[in-house]
Amino acid sequence: MAMIEGICANLPSKCSKAKSREIQRVPDNAAVCAECGFALKRTAHKGPFPGRLVLIAVGAVLALGAIGVGLYHIFKPPQFPACDASGVAAVRNAPPETALALALACRDQGQLDHAVLVLSDLKEKGSGKAALLLGGLYDPLDAGQQTPKHLSPSILNAVEFYQQACTLKEPEAAARLAALRESAIKEAESGGDKLLRDLVDAWPECPL
Fold first, then answer.
1. Which spans are transmembrane here (predicted)?
2. 7 is in which domain, residue-wise?
3. Is 93 inside a domain boundary?
C-alpha cells in the first residue's frame, strides 16, 4: 500500500501534533491525523519512503558495477607480453600468432636479440613466416635496412633463411631469393668471398 507523509492541518490549539508540526506517515487512503482525525497536509509525494529509494539506487549502482567488473574480466583484451626475457619465455607455449606479434614488436623497438630468439623458436616449430622474417633482418634489399629493425646486411645469411622459408612453403620466399641474386652477383664480382661466389654459381631456387 502506498504511504504518504503529512502534517496535521488542524489548529495548533486543537491538536498537539498540529502544534508540534509532527510529520506523520500514514496510508494514502487514510490521510488523517492519528490524534484528532483531521486531514493531513501532505509533505511528500506518493511512493516508497525516500530512504528506501536511496537504498534501491545504491543497490542498483553496486549491481551495475559488479556486472561491469564481470564483463571486463570476461572480455578484456589479453595482456601482451613485454619485449624482454620474460616475454620471450612467456610466448614459447603461446599460439604462433601471439609469438609472431611479439617478435615484430621487438624488431620494431630495435630489440633484435629478443626478436631473433622468438623467430628462431617459431622457425624450429615449422613457421615459414618466421624464417622469412629472419632472412629479412639480413637482407640488404629489405626496406629500412639501415634502421634499428635490421642486422648487418649479409647475403649469405639472408639466402640461408630464405631457403629454409622455401622448405617450409612460405609463399614470399621465392621472390625474395630471386631478388637477391643480382646483388649477390655484383658483390661476388667486386671481390666477394669464395662462399658467396660458390653461392652465385649454384643459386638456390624454391622447390615447386
1. 53-75
2. 3-75
3. yes
- Local confidence pLDDT in tens for the 208 residues of the chain: 678 888 888 888 888 888 888 888 888 777 888 888 888 888 755 445 455 555 666 666 676 766 755 654 455 445 668 899 999 999 999 999 999 999 999 999 989 999 999 999 999 999 999 999 999 999 998 876 666 778 888 999 999 999 999 999 999 999 999 999 999 999 999 887 899 999 999 999 887 6
In a domain, 208, yes or no: no
Q: Is residue 207 part of a domain?
A: no
pTM of the shown model: 0.61
Distance between the two ends of the chain, CA-based, in angstroms?
85
Residue ranges in the chain assigned as alpha helix (H): 16-20, 50-75, 85-90, 96-108, 112-124, 128-138, 155-167, 173-189, 194-201
Tell me whether residue 80 is in a domain: no
